[in-house]
Design a protein that fits this description.
The chain has about 475 residues and is an alpha+beta fold. Among the domains are: about 45 residues, no CATH class; about 55 residues. About 40% of the residues lie in helices and about 15% in strands. The protein has 14 helices and 13 strands. Strands 4, 5, 6, 7, 8 and 9 form a 6-stranded antiparallel sheet that branches. Strands 3-2-10 form a 3-stranded antiparallel sheet. A hairpin with a 6-residue loop joins strand 6 and strand 7. Helix 6 packs antiparallel against helix 9 and helix 13 crosses helix 14. The longest helix has about 30 residues. The protein starts with 9 loop residues before the first helix and ends with a helix. About 20% of the residues are buried.
């Protein structure tokens, strides 16, 4: 994930994308959340005073101390969110096209392999894992496709920082992408820099009366539009190749929600507690000096720092009585050490609970692999819920690949595939060690019981390209062995 921490080109981007005020505010929140996710401040703390978002997990200190308080950052949210992403897409899902009738079975399998090859060429599932992680932080990502005649299909994800859109009832009506010219890096003057806006939108076809997807590319020099360079093209597709994915959220939520929301306060208190605890150790267990009968001005000039030397005069009105100022060391016992450790453990557990992650202590003394699976039930349920946000985009992507492949791969795509009737299924492969072994054992039992075919087992649990060819090979070997025995 990339984010322009210092908001370079912010005004240009906002002007060209024509962002409304509510979007501008939302993107500031997203920027702050992402920097928090990264951990400690990415710039000196004194520079961050003008932009508090740059503090990350650090914080402002206004204490009037003669020492620099510790700010120890133990970033817990980053590994938690990355672990969730690994659970979702660390192992790519198994795609199945279940034909509605037997006649379409072979054709559906051929189409699935064709689409699977395009996904592999684009490293799609690796990119999806990264896009999912970004969506859990920034709330929204965009899946899009570039399709040109006789050229391979290109599948990309876009960060919310680089696009704006209009939608209605969950359907995208218009999407605008911001792009900076590669040569801008060599230009020192901002007004000489070139920017592009790529727009996908719908236009009514005069002949058919149906909506048609159009593409427009606009070139800007600074914020001035170069109209003579504008390109407006009828793509020939029935839908724009863009699909917005929002992370969870409530009904009619415009932006979705960030998984960081429930973690920020706990992470902040965790960092502050462990920082105070470290200072306690550094200051000899928070031992302090008590002054009796000392001069007020001298006491106020005490240097608050480890090992500091203190010189204190006796108060003037007490000199005649023979009293002497005393400086006494009050040693601090680490009797609250257990309480601090308990608080940190509780904070750690609360973050795991918010993410439906089992604690490490829960993983001890697991009686069986099946019990291990039950321990991850909440996390699996959480991931299943998130699959509901992503599955529609994947299905629309596959449909668009079918539509575009006729012009992108005219020699490879079989137009008869357009007539196939099938259902798209995703088998979610979560990284449970017992999961695959248990499913294999159950499937083998079903084969032995005659309620599952051998070819079905080979298709699901073998690396063979064709289950039928593999089964024919097995039958051939069995026949040869039988003939040899005779």
């Amino acid at each position: 994930m990339y984010l322009n921490y210092y908001n370079d080109n912010k005004n240009i981007k906002e002007a060209l994308l024509k962002l409304p005020d509510i979007e501008k505010k939302e993107r500031e929140v997203v920027r702050k959340d992402y920097i928090f996710y990264k951990g400690k401040s990415i710039s000196p703390l004194d520079r961050a005073n003008g932009d508090k978002s740059l503090l990350g997990q650090n914080w402002e200190t206004n204490d009037n101390c003669d020492y620099k308080p510790t700010q120890e950052i133990r970033n817990k949210v980053k590994p938690l969110l990355k672990k969730q992403a690994r659970w979702m897409f660390g192992v790519e899902p198994t795609i199945k096209f279940k034909a509605d009738n037997k006649d379409d079975k072979d054709g559906s399998e051929e189409l699935r392999k064709f689409i699977d090859d395009i996904l592999d060429d684009n490293s799609f599932w690796q990119g999806t894992k990264k896009a999912f992680l970004e969506a859990t932080i920034k709330k929204r990502v965009l899946l899009r496709v570039e399709a040109n005649p006789n050229s391979p299909i290109v599948i990309k994800y876009e960060s919310i920082d680089n696009f704006h859109y209009k939608e209605r009832h969950g359907k995208l009506l218009k999407v605008v992408f911001f792009e900076e010219d590669e040569e801008n890096i060599y230009k020192e003057c901002d007004i000489e820099k070139i920017y592009y806006c790529h727009t996908y939108y719908y236009k009514m076809d005069k002949n058919s009366g149906e909506l048609q997807a159009w593409y427009k590319k606009e070139t800007y020099k600074d914020v001035e539009l170069k109209e003579d360079l504008t390109r407006d093209i009828d793509t020939g597709f029935s839908s724009i190749p863009c699909w917005l994915i929002k992370n969870s959220g409530e009904l009619n939520d415009s932006f979705g929600e960030s998984d960081l929301d429930e973690l920020i306060d706990i992470q902040t208190q965790y960092n502050k507690t462990i920082s105070d605890f470290r200072d306690a150790l550094r200051f000899q267990m928070y031992g302090s000096e008590a002054v009796i009968d000392g001069n007020e001005d001298d006491v106020n000039k005490f240097i608050v720092a480890p090992g500091a030397l203190h010189a204190v005069r006796t108060r003037d009105e007490l000199l005649e009585t023979g009293k002497q100022a005393q400086v006494q060391r009050l040693e601090y016992s680490m009797g609250n050490n257990a309480a601090v450790e308990a608080y940190l453990d509780r904070a750690d557990a609360d973050m795991n609970f918010a993410m439906d992650m089992p604690k490490l202590s829960d993983l001890k003394n697991i009686a069986s692999a099946k019990a291990m699976g039950y321990l991850y039930n909440d996390l699996i349920a959480r991931c299943e819920d998130k699959w509901n946000d992503w599955t529609p985009a994947f299905i629309h992507l596959f449909d668009f690949i079918k539509e575009a492949s006729a012009v992108c791969y005219p020699g490879k795509y079989n137009k008869a595939w357009n007539q196939l009737k099938y259902s798209t299924l995703f088998e979610h492969n979560y990284p449970l060690s017992s999961d695959t072994d248990g499913k294999k054992t159950l499937a083998m039992t079903e084969v032995d019981s005659g309620v599952r075919s051998h070819q079905s087992y080979i298709k699901d649990y073998s690396d063979a390209e064709s289950a039928k060819e593999e089964w024919d090979e097995i039958l051939k070997e069995k026949s040869e062995l039988a003939n040899t025995a005779i």
